[in-house]
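Entry for the shared binder. Reason: the reviewer on the internal report wants the predicted structure included alongside the sequence.
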Amino acid sequence: MKLKKEFWISILLAAFPAFLAYASGGVELLTELTKSMMTHKWIMIYSMVGFGLFIVVSYLEWRFLFHSDALRKFHRFVSEVLYEMASSFLGILRITAGIFISVFMLWLIFDYSREMLLSFTGILLFGVIALVEACWIRATLEYAQRTWMMKNSNQ
């Protein structure tokens, strides 16, 4: 169920603009749009680190009892900020999956050729991998928020 939901989120985020770009400007506009929607690798790495930090900080909040009210509030603030950063990583994965899947679908519908089959199958594979990663990230964020962060919300 989560895969289906993530698929449609990814498609709505990236495929609709990609189809409009292809319909109005052809391959040139689609290429320009795709390049502009793809996140630079340093931003991807930075947001991935933020996701990892969120997991660690949330687990520490769940595992250890902070006796100081000031420390507990600071830790809660850090957890909430890192949660938002981790959510941005999820958004990046969704857009990436949507771009790869939509480029494959456009090629399959409008420009299919047997010579390019292997290349575009690779693009589809990257899209599916990004989609599965988005499902995993979403499930992890939901688990951490539900299990680790909620325990200490009343402190």
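Summary line for the report: The mean pLDDT is 87.
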